[in-house]
Amino acid sequence: RKEVEQDPGPFNVPEGATVAFNCTYSNSASQSFFWYRQDCRKEPKLLMSVYSSGNEDGRFTAQLNRASQYISLLIRDSKLSDSATYLCAALSNDYKLSFGAGTTVTVRA
Amino acid sequence: NAGVTQTPKFQVLKTGQSMTLQCAQDMNHNSMYWYRQDPGMGLRLIYYSASEGTTDKGEVPNGYNVSRLNKREFSLRLESAAPSQTSVYFCASSGPLGDEQFFGPGTRLTVL
């Protein structure tokens, strides 16, 4: 079983919609979590860090549920420019990140 | 600041050839990483270096070697390339806790 698992999608949503998706992790000792955004044929870029119950940055909200071992990402008022693959990552106690395979989001006009 | 740079951007090798992928960062980070990304597999850690002079194996180290030349540079070497090593390779760096990693633009490697 992979340490971090994500629904690959794709999530196909209209502009202005809200889209949310989850990421589950298997290592209960993980303390820090991250959402990265990856555009097609580009490198991942850090979108948001999640160290406690959640984090909010503009239209993006991340929530952490330690009891059920998942992190969610919610995007409000979707823009065309939000189309990308979103990678979830969990930091282990030996300071290594484990990544999920990514969730693809397509926002249509 | 250039951040994390990688060379080359693209490479085609024949089976059995060798090559070195170069990575450099100008953020004064202690930790550096090499990942490979394959469709449906996500990013998998090949090797990492927590500080200058130290390297450790990640999830998929077989067929690769690394050198942490100094604090800025971390290279990945394929001694005898195999088609299974066809992938996109990303270098990353971070502070000492390993969080908030910054990635280079990647090297697209094809082994025929």
Structure description:
The complex is a heterodimer of chains A (109) and B (112). Helix content of chain A is 0%, strand content 55%. With 109 residues, chain A is mainly β. In chain A, strand 9 (84-91) and strand 10 form a beta hairpin. Chain A is globular, with a radius of gyration of 13 Å. In chain B, the strands form two sheets. In chain B, strands 2, 4, 5, 6, 9, 10 and 11 form a seven-stranded mixed β-sheet that branches. In chain B, strands 1-3-8-7 form a four-stranded antiparallel β-sheet, with no helix packed on it. In chain B, strand 5 and strand 6 form a beta hairpin. At the A-B interface, strand 5 of A face strand 5 and strand 10 of B.
Uncertain ranges of chain A? none
Average pLDDT taken over every residue of chain B: 94
Largest chain interface and its two residue counts? A-B, 20 and 23 residues
Q: What is the helix content of chain A? A: under 10%
Count of individual beta strands of chain A: 11
Computed structural class of chain B: mainly beta
Q: From N to C, what is the helix and strand string of chain A?
A: EEEEEEEEEEE
User: Looking at the chains present, what oligomeric state does this protein adopt?
Assistant: heterodimer
Distance between the termini of chain A: 37 Å
> Hey, roughly how much beta strand do the residues of chain A contain?
over 45%
Helices and strands of chain B, in N-to-C order? EEEEEEEEEEE
Number of helices, counting only DSSP H or I runs of 4 residues or more of chain A: 0
C-alpha Rg of chain A, in Å?
Answer: 13 Å
